[in-house]
Amino acid sequence: MSGTLEPREKGGPIQKFWEDSSTTSQLETIKTWLMKNAKKHVSADPPTAKSLSQLIQQFIQMQEDFLGKGSKNPPFTRLPLYLFYDLSPGGTLSHIFSGMYKYKSEQGWRRFDLQSPSRKDANLQMCQKVEEFLKAQKLFVPPSCFFKKNVKDADKEKAKEIIKKKGGSVVDDEEDATHIIHPKVELNMDLYARPVFKRGDKCLVHFLMMPDSQDNWGTCYPENDPSEDPEEREEIYHVSVDWLLESTPYNEWLNEEDYQLEENGKVKVSDTAMTYDEFIASEEKPDKKKKGNSKRKRSPSPQPKGKKGRKGKKSKMKEMMKKT
User: Fold this and answer.
1) Residue 199: in which H helix or E strand, if any?
2) Is the pLDDT of residue 289 over 80?
């Protein structure tokens, strides 16, 4: 069990991912894109794939330090982690770099210095400018939420406060919403984790009902293989109001898929989510799995005593939060 992937306690960069050779090769194509499309801002300090890897790790760490769940009075909500995993040329990560270099150039900085406490305010200002840059190009759209009439008033009022605090908006017309908010529903608490995307035998693993900043990277052989790139986001999400209410401890938007519903308000069945036992089995090479256990159970079985389901994981996280 010692090798089992678990949610990370800190939401900084996943070093093993950013320094993986396949990631470096993709950063090489982003470097080429920057030299062509942001030449004005990068020519004075041309990046390399290695320097881009180091820079984005420092940027994510800066967000964790000043905007993470352990920070005091964070001035704004941290950027969603999914924006950093689009490594296609011209994708969201390309534009994050472009926005950073643009701000560096406009400020007359000779170099980035994201780790110095004395540069905290300047770096947070850059972070905000990057967010504005992404918004202007419709690459990041903060949630605009429409509440169904049957959401309890008490839940609705709490949720509205959270939306305002996180920089989202509440809309009166369902047609204008990116997120349709439904009443609380009984979610499947036996489900534990799901793979997001893979590189060879490695997967980015998301732990259900936990922030993306605590995802982890490691060897995983799920029966339903994810693609090599993150799936495109949906234009509209139908979610339980818990998606907002459970985000209170974290200065980030939670993962919609953990709370996703059908349009009629019924729980949407995930093809890739795994119980704890299925997740443990996915960490074994297929040829080592017992012949009778190769087929994934579609209906999650009750968790054996001592095994972790989502309930156990949530309790563990509450203990961790008390310590911090």
Assistant:
1) strand 191-199
2) no
